[in-house]
Design goal:
267 residues, globular, three-stranded parallel beta sheet, 10% strand, 10 helices
Length: 267
Amino acid sequence: MYHRVAVEQFDPWELCVTPEHFADHVDVLAASGRRVFSVTDLVAGHRAGTLPKGAIAISFDDGYVDNLRVAAPTLAQRDLPATVFVATAAMGSGRMMWWDELGDVLGHDPAEYERRWRAMLELGEDERRGEMDSVLDGRSIAGSDDRRMMNREEVRTLDRDTTIEVGSHTVTHSSLPTLSMAARDDELRRSRHDLEELLERRVETLAYPYGHTDASCAAAARAAGYTAAVTTVGAPVRAADDPLLVPRFLVPDLDGDAFARFLAERG
């Protein structure tokens, strides 16, 4: 699991891997002899019992523009597939993700940043945006073009013209277990519908925002038409795992040698 291929001064959740280190990771994977899959193909192989030992799926959450500009060309050099999970309301929103805006305001005070982040995490989208506007207090956040989320055309380009497939990360990137059943089901169904219209193909893969899920959310995802969904539980995929609760390891910002050890330690 990755999020960004970029350099940030304030990165409290370790969401960034530098472009140089990501290129090292891709080189290590290409030389490792491991089979690399999209999430769709990995879960299909899991269902069929045909996955080779050491198989890996590369995935990115959220839909940052560096996934298209930096990650996709790097992966294409080695002909490696990946899956990018996109929160559809963020496409072309003109704003950064709320935690990035919060970091720009409170990055000088990590304790206050974390307090505010945890307080806002489980709010609904309207409440969270209202709270974020209160934090900004009229200040404008001048997010650079390389920190924004992809727009609709960029998402379409990523899915059509690269080795990457696009999957759903819900509509508003809200914590699904905290929502009403109706709101949760709308997040799952509407994001899938919007992506299918945009990409002109079926979309059946999902990443739970923040990794927050439970048996009820997995059942709702299955009912909404998803055949694969990934969590943030740091564990290898086992034969008995539910395809709607696939674990993933967050990849830190490691150089190539350290990344090779990281892989070896995880099977």
